[in-house]
Structures are given as structure tokens and as C-alpha cells.
Amino acid sequence: MLFATAYQTFAPTDLDRILADPKLGGATVSAIVTDLEGAPIYRHDSDAHVVPASNQKLLSNSFALWALGPDYRPKTSFWKSEDRIVIDCPGDPLMTYAALQQAKVALGIDGRSPVFLHEAYAPEIPDSWEIDDLPNRYAAAVSALTFDRGSFEAWSRKRRFRLEPEAFGVNVKFLGGKGRPQIQYDPIRRRLEISGEMPAANERLDTLALPEPDLAAGSIFGHSVTRTTEIPVRTADYVITGGTTKDMVAACLPPSDNNIAENLLLMGARTEGELGEDPYTVSRKRLENFMTRIVGVEPGDVHVFDGSGMSRHNYVTTRAIARLLCWEQKQPTGDFWHHALAHPGNGTLSNRLKGLQFDAKTGSLDMVASLSGYLTTDSGKKVVVSIILNQFGCSSAEARAIQDEFVLAVAHGLR
What we know:
The chain is an alpha+beta fold. The protein folds into 2 domains: about 15-70 and about 245-415, 3-Layer(aba) Sandwich (Beta-lactamase); about 75-245, no CATH class. The protein has helices spanning about 15-20, 55-70, 95-105, 215-220, 245-250, 260-270, 280-295, 320-330, 335-340, 395-415, and strands at about 30-35, 40-45, 75-80, 85-90, 115-120, 150-155, 160-165, 170-175, 180-185, 190-195, 205-210, 225, 240, 355-365, 370-375, 380-390. It has a 5-stranded antiparallel beta sheet, sandwiched between helices. A 5-stranded mixed beta sheet has the order 12-5-4-3-13, covered by helices on one side. The protein has a 3-stranded antiparallel beta sheet with strand order 7-6-11, with no helix packed on it. Helix 1 (about 15-20) packs antiparallel against helix 10 and helix 2 crosses helix 6 (about 260-270). The radius of gyration is 23 Å and the shape is globular. The model is unreliable at about 1-10 (pLDDT under 50).
């Protein structure tokens, strides 16, 4: 443990006591507090390799801001000819079904022509994601052309079951029965089974992951969709201009959106060259290079497997997270970065640490809890805090409570 001499503060045993809570017995506990220059104020195993969960989004979002630039806007282009529709997409995680429908109308497409799709990447399911997660919207397949965050919805409309905006080739089987409707969905086999009774009132029952979102998006325009490596040389007939990188980051960080984070990783990596047939292998290396060569983290402190933190193969150190936060707040986008994070009463901190000035990112997986951000203490000092807990035996709520106690102790005790 170390306290900087520039700070007059409580004894380090105050924070040690919190992290020694018996509920964390056997857990990996890593924490660090630094000033905004990165000088350590307190450390507890800050060089330990820990699974970051959604704190991984701090890496992918910072990388995208740096690589793409804050004002970059992706352009999805469409060409219409007598015998085909061609779509070129560099990646746009904020694309909507409504925008694609508008393009179809504007181009006067009748849906009878084949569609040829050229996209910057389409890894679909990142390796190491757990199969039980895949039906859920938070684990939607990843592709450059997508819409509505790679999701569609299951609805009851006047006691009739519907998939909206379309079924996209998903086969629905009704099992009958009593009680609330229960949905079992397999996006790989495109099968959905529903049991129970449909509610009388209109009600959204679930939000599900699209099967092959790029092909689903392409099917809006034609009867068949084929991937291609070529696009027309003439000017596009229609272009959808997406939101800025800042728009994507602001839509990703506070609600912790996995699909946007994965796209930002791949889009950022592609600025250094094509991603090839194995885009994640290439992108991982480019993000790690950014962290070590640009941000200045210690080699070996970061191991990247995805952009969202869904993978348990990611690891970081809390000193690397702190270094990234110190670096990012000094960038031209520093003010935006602070604003884009969650705050007490907002985003994933909506029910935590109310009353504090704390711009932060949360993260959670089974037996993983992470919390990192910028804290203003009672005395007005601004510090960086990162605390990541792995393999705890208590409940997630108890682990988060210990994290909150740690942050409150720093806020109230640091002078």
C-alpha cells in the first residue's frame, strides 16, 4: 500500500479493512487510487491479472475515439441496377431498421432483385462467448451491417404472437399451456418455442438476438443475400450517414451496450488496414498495441479477447485501467469522455453512490465486479479509482456494496 505525500489522508488501513471483508475471502481483489497524473495514492495488488467484465469497454471505446477520430461518421452505400442491389458497409452500430426501410423506399426497390453485400467485417459470434448467452440481445452477433443493435422483439398483439419488425426466417412453434408466456430461442437453428398464454394487452415479451444480422439487414432489400468482395466504381445511388464516433461512445458507455463496443473495436482496428478473415485476432493485437505504445501501460498488463468484456479470456490490471483513465482525460475529447461515462443516478450507476461526483464505468459477470472512474473527493481533490473483484463467493450485490464502500471511503477520507 502506498499513499502519496502530497495528500493528507486517513491511514491506509481504512481501505485495507474494507478490502479484507470476510465476504471476499478467497477472491482476487485488485484496487488502485491515483492522482490525475497517475501517481499512486493507494494500491492493493494493482498488478494482478483480473477479468474486467464491462470495464473492457473503456479500452475499446478509447481506442475507437483515438483511431477513428471523434467526428468520424460511417457511410453505408447502396447501388441499384437492373439485376442487383449492392450494399457496402464499413460498420455502423447505430443503424436502425427504420433507416434501412427509408433507403429501400428512396431507391424504389421492389425486393425481387438479389442483394450483394460488401462489409468491413462479419465475425458474427466472437470466440469464447458462452453459448447460453447467445439468444439474448446483449450477446447479439457482430457484423458491420446490422440494425437496432443486432436485435428484434417478441410481442403479444391482441393475444397473437409476433416477431417485430420481421421474423427474419425464425420458425415459431407454439406449445400451449397456462400462465405467463415462456420463450425458448435458438438463434443458430432459427427456432423459437413459446409456451403459456398470450396477454390480452399489447406487450413486449422479450428482446432477442438477430440470427446473422447482416443477412437479415440485406434481406430487407431483396430475396437473396450474397457476400461479395467487389463494389461498383460509380457514385452510390443512396448513402446512409451514421452518427459520429462520439455518438457511438455516448450510446455505448452509460448503458454498457455490448454490440456497440464490439463494433467500435473492429472499426477502430480497421483504420490500420483490412481485418482479413479473422478480424478479432487482428483487432486484439491492434488494441493491445494502442494500450502499450500510445497509452503507455505496462506490457503484459492487458490481454484483449473482445471489445465488450463478455469474454472471460480478457484480462487487465487496475493499474492499466488507471493509466488509461489518466491518459484519456488529457485528450482533446477529455471533457466529452467524462460526460459519456455513467454517473450516480444515471446509467449503470442509477442506484449507486448517489450524492458523489463520480464519472465511472461498471462491469459485471458471474463472480466478476468492476468499477473504475474519476472521483471528486469532499475536499475537491480529483482522483482516479479502479477496483476489480474476481471469483468472490458472496452475491454480486454484496460485492458491489464493498466497492461502493471503498469509493465512499476515498471520497470522504482523502484530503
